[in-house]
Amino acid sequence: MSKSFTAFANFVAGAAGKAQTFILALAVVVIWAVSGPVFKWSDTWQLVINTGTTIVTFLMVFLIQNSQNRDAAAFQAKLDELLRALDEARNSFIGIEHRSAEEIDTLRAALEEETGQVEEETHRAHASVSRLLDRY
pTM to 2 decimals? Predict the structure, then answer.
């Protein structure tokens, strides 16, 4: 079933990104809008487009998430292979995407310190973002 879903998700994701699909969706909306006077702008007329778009959106969320998850996993595997293949790379970085956000932030900060990329301006920018996030 997993292979079938993956094939279906790939097909739908590929089709959804095409200009023809956008034109088809636009045509449906135009036909719906033009048919408004025929149906006297009824609640049922409005319910048709609302229901249709809700169903399509709901289903597309899962298909797009599936595609993004596979893309991210493939990207991570490629990066892990690069780390493994480079003699000077630290293999301890392989699989860090499974660590918590706090651990990754700590590691990133240590790397910035190590490479000398931490400057006063960077600290100010991080502090500004932190203050903004604290408001919410």
Answer: 0.63
